[in-house]
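call fold(seq) -> tokens
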Amino acid sequence: METFHAQIVVCGAGTAGLPAALAAARHGCTVAVIEEDARIGGAPTDFYINNYCGDPIQGIYAELRERMKKYAPGENLNPNCFRLTSYLMAWDELFEGLPVTFYTGHRIEKAEVKDGRIIAVESSSARFEGEVFIDATGDAALAVLTPCEWRYGREAQSEYNEKFAPEKADSKVQLCTLMYTVRPKPGCEDAKPANWALFNKQDYLIWGPTVGCEDTADPVKLCEAQNRAMAMLRSHAEKWDQKGYYITNVAPKLGVRESRRIVGDYVLNYNDIMGERSYDDAVCVVRYNIDPWDPEGNPVHSSNTVKSTMTPHYEIPYRCLTTPNVENMLVTGRCVSATHVANSSLRVMAITHILGQAAGNAAWIALRDSVSVRNIDVAALREDMKAQNVWVSLAQYRKDTGEL
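ret:
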């Protein structure tokens, strides 16, 4: 078994892992990025989620959007949509010359933990040693191999007094969707689909067959769910044919919205978001509506409750990325410490990019000061994020934007 070493080991090369690696490397840290797929990218690569949700446009998210423009100039009529090729080439450009090594085709299977610290992680063929580890896998695949506490499913309404939470806790997570694109058939160029995101001048990005999955972290269960979605694709094609369209591309993997979530030093919940709570350790200001795609059929979108899903801008505290059980591990992306309901807002790419950026900066500070990730100088982290054009407080965001 080969052994590799880096100061920071990032598990997952997706929409949180890539910003984490970039932020840390820009501070001069050596970074190893481990990815189970054959190429980097995450949700855009796997699920065709080539449409940004969430705001504001800030930090590495803003940099990436700007760089993608030159690879498909003037093509996208929806500013939130992008081509996968533009996305991958923009990331390649951002990483140029930095001390980052990508190890694709490696699925983390083991973590060596001693006295509350991760020493190394292993795939079937390689060992990766480091000082700080970042779980950006989307499934908390590293965290579950450590003493870190985690959850899968929905909390009971009584635990956090959350609107949209079920009466009893269960193991249900958000539904999964198979994405695809459609294009007008010759002679039907003026047709407009009823449910669409304008991808470019020809293609429309479609949220396709949607199914439940018993365990989105289990590859076998996920494949079973994907097979059910694929069996529905032909009926979708027939409906689009009647509208004057045909399907041009189908995502290689079923789109997963939610998996395991850690129980960190703070659990963000619906009332925190809607109450616009402020934190001394907030690392970003973000916004996206509550959108849990529940198995019951998206009850939050009913006419009498939809206003309760429209969130204000809100802060996410650093404590959602740390755990009391592991001194040198940060968890970022959709697996941060939040309830099922809160997760349905913060899981989108515009937000996971910034959470990843925060994790990368925090890892650097922990290394610089030789402290655990829980004991870093949070004020220094917030200043670092602000210097990188990220809002870290609602007060500052409102002052800069004029939002009341």
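The CA atoms of residues 38 and 105 lie 5 Å apart.
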